[in-house]
Amino acid sequence: MLSLFKKVGVCAFASLISVGAHAAVSWDFTGSAERISTVTGGSYEWSGSDGSVVTLSAWNAVGHNDIQSANHVFGRNPWGLVIDQDGYPCGSNGGCSGGDSHYIDNGKVQEFVLFDFGDQEFSLESFYNGSVGKDSDVTVLAYTGNGDPTQNISSLNVSELSSNGWGVISHHSNTGSGYESANSNLNNVFSSYWIVGTYMSAVGAGGDYVGDTAFDSIKFAGITGEVRTPGPIGSPHTGVPLPGTLALMSLGLVFAARQRRRKA
User: How far is the C-alpha of 39 from the C-alpha of 74, rounded, in Å?
Assistant: First the structure.
């Protein structure tokens, strides 16, 4: 029979494996998706390589002013996601009439995509650009607060994101076409909500310094990362999952030591 020390060690090790085991998942935004809402606009639902579902919605802001929905001009084509600010509505087939060549950009309007993973949490490892314009600087944000940030995002401006639960994961300079690592040099951050968009100087520093003034244009074609089941209700939508497990393990070891002293 295992000693109490061994039992505690085995249980703690099993807990660490359970907490640390995250599924690697990828999403291809050039493939099929379910359009939500009306035929002329709405968010998208995409299934990942493991069946996990993410809901994508489009947002924009003139300069750094109030954020507003851009779902009515949110579309996709063989190179990735587009927000067609030419004004042509994007139909249920994913195309934007007269605007399929458009990008997600920050020329006259700051544009970005919000990713909602529902009752799961996600750690973004990389994103894939299917096509880019002359410049392709990118900002990645993760929601680190409590509650559902999609309920009040339209009441904010871009500069207020950082003070309302959105943390800068990284800024990326001239990403180009292909894969770009999102946070390989940072601790894994898990959140149910992410923002990926063209460079947002208004949210503050983080990651690569982006100093040029050229406007950025990108077609996001996919993302990869890890999925996990979130913690207890009311816990922040982010963080490293180990401290609670380590605390339990420490308490178990203390208990085991006391039991051994009593037997001695």
Answer: 11
Name residue 38's beta-bridge partners. Answer: 41
φ/ψ of residue 33, rounded to 5: -150, 160
**pLDDT value at residue 120:** 94
Structure tokens at 217: 């244009």
DSSP the chain: ---HHHHHHHHHHHHHHHHH--EEEEEETTS--EEPSBTTB--EEEE-TTS-EEEEEEEEEETTSB-EE-GGGEEEETTEEEE-TTSPPB-TTS-BTTTTT--EE-SSEEEEEEEE-TTSEEEEEEEEEEEE-S---EEEEEE-SSS-GGGTGGG-BGGGSGGGTEEEEEEES---SEEEESSTTS----BSEEEEEE--GGG---BS-----S--EEEEEEEEEEEE---STTS-S---SHHHHHHHHHHHHHHHHHHHHHH-
CB atoms under 10 Å from CB of 50, counted, come to 10
Alpha-carbon distance of 86 to 84, in angstroms, equals: 5
Average pLDDT over residues 211-232: 84
Residue 9: band (very low, low, confident or very high) from pLDDT cuts 50, 70, 90 = very low
Model pTM score: 0.74
Assigned token pair, 24: 């690697």
Please list, in sequence order, all residues whose beta carbon lies within 8 angstroms of the beta carbon of residue 34, skipping any fewer than 6 positions away: 44, 45, 46
User: Residue 190 to residues 46, 106, 172, 228: CA-CA distances in angstroms?
Assistant: 19, 27, 19, 8
